[in-house]
Amino acid sequence: MLGKMMAQQLTIGSAIDHAERYHAATEVVGIETNGTKTKSNWRSVAKRARQLGSALTKAGLNKGDRIATIAWNNLRHLEIYFGSSSAGYVCHTINPRLFPAQLEYIVTHAKDRILFVDETFAPIVANLADKLTVLDRIVIMAPKTDALAELLPRAEFYEDFIATGDSNFTWPNFEENHASSLCYTSGTTGNPKGVAYTHRSTILHSMALMAADAMAISAKESVLTVVPMFHVNAWGIPYAAAMSGCKLLLPGPKLDGESLLTLINEEQATFAAGVPTIWGGLLQALTANKPENLSLKRTVVGGAACPPSMMDTFRKGFGVEVIHAWGMTETSPLGVINQLKNAQLSLSEDEQNQIRVSQGRPPFGVQLRLLDDEGAEIKTGSGGTGILQIKGHWIVQRYFNAENDATEDGWFDTGDIAAMDQDGFITILDRSKDLIKSGGEWISSVELENIAIAHPEVMDAAAIAVPHPKWDERPIILVKLVEGASPSEADILSIYRDKIANWQIPDRAIFVDEIPRNATGKIVKNQLREKFGSVSLDP
Amino acid sequence: MLGKMMAQQLTIGSAIDHAERYHAATEVVGIETNGTKTKSNWRSVAKRARQLGSALTKAGLNKGDRIATIAWNNLRHLEIYFGSSSAGYVCHTINPRLFPAQLEYIVTHAKDRILFVDETFAPIVANLADKLTVLDRIVIMAPKTDALAELLPRAEFYEDFIATGDSNFTWPNFEENHASSLCYTSGTTGNPKGVAYTHRSTILHSMALMAADAMAISAKESVLTVVPMFHVNAWGIPYAAAMSGCKLLLPGPKLDGESLLTLINEEQATFAAGVPTIWGGLLQALTANKPENLSLKRTVVGGAACPPSMMDTFRKGFGVEVIHAWGMTETSPLGVINQLKNAQLSLSEDEQNQIRVSQGRPPFGVQLRLLDDEGAEIKTGSGGTGILQIKGHWIVQRYFNAENDATEDGWFDTGDIAAMDQDGFITILDRSKDLIKSGGEWISSVELENIAIAHPEVMDAAAIAVPHPKWDERPIILVKLVEGASPSEADILSIYRDKIANWQIPDRAIFVDEIPRNATGKIVKNQLREKFGSVSLDP
Questions:
Q1: How many whole angstroms separate alpha carbon B244 and alpha carbon B496?
Q2: CB neighbours of A359 closer than 8 A, spacing ≥ 6?
């Protein structure tokens, strides 16, 4: 027996419509690439999104065609997010930090028809221009200048393009399982793979973000989206922002601590989301400026494990709650988020902080399981660790134009090694390929790195395995020091004493100038293994 | 182009599965009908729900068959909620305060196959037993006693029934648009009409409830559901509770202020939801007991407009935030909820309280419009008032076994007169049929009632229209006094001076012993109009 409720599709168009109807006057603030701050609001964002949707439609695109962006977090990027998806096209965000060959691969593989590019990245596109043959048009997201016109002769300019559209355009109707956006993983090996999100998966994911126990994005908040809009749709925050009608801050290109702190103070940001490396800069600015009455109350940290020392400093030094989260491009990204349960609120602060270090627990809509080496499910709360698999409304089934990647019984294999406690809190121990196996026991490279980074003389660190005739593998730690520091190798190794079991302590600490990281900030361990994989294990 | 995300159905089974997997140990506390407090948890609720689902299936029901309940908020009722819907049947909750003829009508119209009934209501069912011929079985939700067996000879007992099921039962797969539950409106006129919610509408509604800007139901909370489970699925809170994994308190039959306060204190309730009449009793208990460190922080009030005086006392006297909300059986019920916006947080407390008196603004998923007498849409923020229409994912399209009730262009007509400010906040002025029209201008009966109820000598009040040769209609106010009070009619009428325009002040105040209210606490104005509609307008 079917129910008798209204049949409506879950679409991104309905998200921006909601913001326009009930949050028209609420501010949306963007920093332009040239540093100018523009104060807009949801009324204007919605109107310009409709105008852009109309312009795209007049440009002769077909439903489902891909619209690429290479852009910072700014107002035009936001208009493209809503305008392209709501008009029936697929918003394909591209990470500008990719190697040129990867960028060419992605544009070609996605068969992008229009590319919107910020001024900053116009030179990258100019260098590749004759290889990006699939593109009908290139649109520069900046006012027209002679220099830009010369750099990219075939390009148009955003305001000219949008002017061809009608701001009274109404979104077409379509089914909620149509693709809304596309994002390629920037794996540390192999070609990038695309994840084609749907309108339905995006809206359900955004509703999950708005829950009090997830990001609690609401109209009460002034939300600073530091996580890039080219990185898993800025974790879905732009959609949740429209659906909740929050004040939204798009920080543009300058993500140094001082610039972020200025924006936080000026626009009274209450909530911010970003990766640990960016928060390191913000912490430095906070320490230097010691602002009174800091408006920022909460921050979600994801993308990489947040060193516990950083969580501590935010909380104790500045009253900012740090909420750990974990996800992947393939998971939209919300997989787990760390929010305490009612029964845990009566624990001591130390016990609570112990729980907060884990990545968190799944929201409704996501299921997790851990598999052991034989593929058997590990019982929740047994203390066992295993490969993390995930299932849910916003988890990828199959990569774009690729074979099925879910397991036979419908789970996505994350490639991460994790542990789950009896309350469903997950701790990500390592990528399965980065895990160090010594004497039959696993050692978490993430844990070794966290301990090193917590030391005031260590700027960055990476742990890798080195083959060993007796133990199979032994860990070493590669360390980038803060400027001016000069500890000895023994000094660094002594950090580990009493923090982990003796057999888990790295055999060596080796000083390096830089820890190589990929376009999304993940350590490229392949490179390190190549360079240091046969180093002597005797200090 | 379709996206490539996992295809999963939004089902109530997945809600209770989530609670079992990730919130197994979290407490669910129920007060039995005999007053005993039972401490259960989500593991046990889920297990027993599966066992019940299995027992129903073994009883030979067909998918979509209706399972009726006449019951308090208690653990067995919660098991029936999840067990019946997840197993593919329709959970039909019946309001025990209905007249016997209406109850018979509803059971027959719904073609209920099994009726689960609490001990308290067994006599009602016994009296009707030979008329409830559609029922295959009656199951009493209490331990077996000779008295009950004698009262209802054909009845079985809950624990015997559930014992026939298998707690390892797995939920069948079905499509999310299948009906999950059924609730009849207790209109003040005509036969009740049924609303058949779907799994999809229920889950989307619950996700909306969990948003920080709606009820913010989360695993941090200890949630007291005073709103009855026979009243629009307790506003959807049981589902949101499972999906968020909160601690859940089901108060059973005793809803007086002292009983509720005891439960709040014992189980450290942080959030409660209910109707104004119940909160009046709680306020009295709070005033009498003056508890220190009250755990209760927030309460959502709906079902009828909450008198501003009550909101004030909760906030200022006891630090409890009162959140106004509005909805109907036809709207699942969340239509609007009152949460301030970022820009409103810098207003003065008085200005904020002014906003808080309105019913609130729609969450994502709900759209509202106001129509004037000619059926034209009233512009948002114009200050105009009109008939409120509503549309959305959890709004009824058509009553159960009835003709289409949505408008031609797909909206549901609420029958309420409302105003909408420029920020999208709705104030419900009246039922359109209760509105008083004097000299061509509307007078809100709700406003006249609120002003009267705010007076310390007034217990309850109802405003109705009386025909008038010159002004068409004039308002009168019917007043039930608190015990021992003896104001004059002129005293009561003087309350209105300086609060509303002179022409809006009622012509008469008439003292009555009781204000008649229907099964859901709404004033039965028909009765009052019949009795007082031709009273003299000269005091």
A1: 45
A2: A305, A324, A325, A326, A335, A336, A337, A338, A418, A425, A426, A427, A428
Mean of the per-residue pLDDT values of chain B: 93
Residue B188 has pLDDT above 60, yes or no: no
Out of A179, A361, A410, name the one closest to residue B1 (CB): A179
In order of A235, A257, A263, A299, the CA distances from A281 in angstroms are 20, 4, 14, 14
Question: A357: buried, middle or exposed (CB in 10 Å: 19+, 13-18, 0-12)?
Answer: middle
- In Å, how far from its chain's centre is CA B379? 30
**A19 vs A530: which has the higher pLDDT:** A19
Residues of A in contact with B64 (CB under 8 A): 1
Contact in structure between B209 and B334 (CB atoms under 8 Å): yes
Which tokens belong to A473? Answer: 């593998």
Q: How far is CA A57 from CA A53, A196, A332, B514, in A?
A: 6, 21, 27, 64
Q: Give whole-number Cα distances, A152 to A96, A123, A130, A145, A430, in Å.
A: 17, 8, 11, 11, 43
Q: Cα–Cα distance between A422 and A442 in angstroms, integer? A: 21
**Yes or no, beta carbons of A63 and B178 under 8 Å apart:** no
Q: Which two tokens stand for residue B222?
A: 């200890």
Whose tokens are 């009612």? That residue is A342
Residue A443 confidence class, pLDDT cut points 50, 70, 90? confident
Rounded Cα gap, residues A443 and A435, in angstroms: 6
CB spacing of A26 vs B220 below 8 angstroms: no
How many other β-carbons are positioned within 10 Å of the β-carbon of residue B499?
A: 13
- Spatial distance between the Cα atoms of A106 and A68, rounded to a whole number of angstroms: 10
> How far apart are the C-alpha atoms of A12 and B52, rounded to whole Å?
39
Pairing of strands B27-31, B385-392: unpaired
- Mutation target to probe the A interface, by most A beta carbons within 10 A, among B5, B339, B423 is B5
**pLDDT at site A404:** 65
Single-letter residue type at A495: I
Residue pair B89/B241 in contact (Cβ under 8 Å)? The answer is no
The closest of B415, B519, B414, B530 to B462, measured between CA atoms, is B530
CB contact under 8 Å between A219 and B23, yes or no, is: no
Per DSSP, the three-state class of A445 is: helix
Query: Residue range B264-286: average pLDDT?
Result: 94
Task: Please report the pLDDT score of residue A421 as a whole number.
Answer: 92
Tokens describing residue A165: 């559209």
Query: Which residue of chain A is at minimal alpha-carbon distance from B219?
Result: A341
pLDDT of residue A290: 92
Interchain proximity A221–B342, CB inside 8 Å: yes
ipTM reported for the complex, 2 dp: 0.90
Q: For B153-167, how does the pLDDT look when each residue is reduced to its tens digit (9 = 90+)?
A: 999 999 999 999 999
Give the strand order in the sheet containing B222-225.
Answer: B37-41, B27-31, B247-250, B222-225, B271-274, B298-301, B321-327, B334-337
Query: In angstroms, rounded to a whole number, what is the distance separating the alpha carbons of residues A131 and A108?
Result: 9
Residue among B1, B211, B340 whose CB faces A210 most closely: B211
pTM (predicted TM-score): 0.91
The predicted pLDDT at position A188 comes to 58
A273 DSSP β-pair partners: A225, A300
Tokens of A266: 């000026």
The residues of B carrying an active-site annotation are: 185, 330, 437, 442
Which percentage of chain A shows pLDDT scores above 70? 98
Give whole-number Cα distances, B324 to B90, B353, B464, in Å. Answer: 30, 11, 24
Within 10 angstroms of residue B366's Cβ, the number of other Cβ atoms is 24
Q: Does the beta-carbon distance from A213 to B218 stay under 8 Å?
A: yes
Q: CA angle B53-B55-B61, nearest 5°?
A: 80
Report d(CA A204, CA A200) in Å as an integer.
Answer: 6
Q: What is the pLDDT of residues A58-77, one digit of tens each?
A: 999 999 999 999 999 999 99
